Amino acid sequence: MRESARAAVRARFRIGPWVPGFLLPTAVGLSGIAATLLVLQDGLVLVGVVLAVVAALRVRSATPWLLVALLVLGQLVRDPARLDAELPALVLALHVFVVLTLGSRVVPVRSRVQLAALGPAARALGLVQLPTQALAALLLASAGHLQVLPAASTIGGALLVLVAGLLVVPRRAERED
Hints:
This protein has a two-stranded antiparallel sheet. The protein has one domain. By secondary structure, it is mainly alpha-helical. The protein is 75% helix and 3% strand.
């Protein structure tokens, strides 16, 4: 196909706002590193960071799931009396990591991803995180860590605004068409 023909096709088929496909694996690595720094201690931090980087480079391998297993084991070996505001952040970070990993497994690195295509995954993430963050806040309240409830409610409120925006904005755009 000639260059002018490609330009004509692009002019006729508008794809809307998009992001480069390589941003999804990059986000996998960044969220994996963030979760690693939240949970792991001492020598395991280096192992977690290496796994996060390899998971970003090889999303179709077992490495992302090894990182999830390492993070779960890292949380299990921590002192349960130290339950604090890291719990809601860890739940969110792991969920974002898994969603980004699953998304980047199906999106080629050299492609373009329409922002509208990311909407259903973001909507599902928010809808799952609302009750999950509420349960985490309840767990923290039952453990007597009332000082962390403002942090949990802030995260929950931000997620509620995100979900409301994801549910309302597409409906308004459908009505205008």
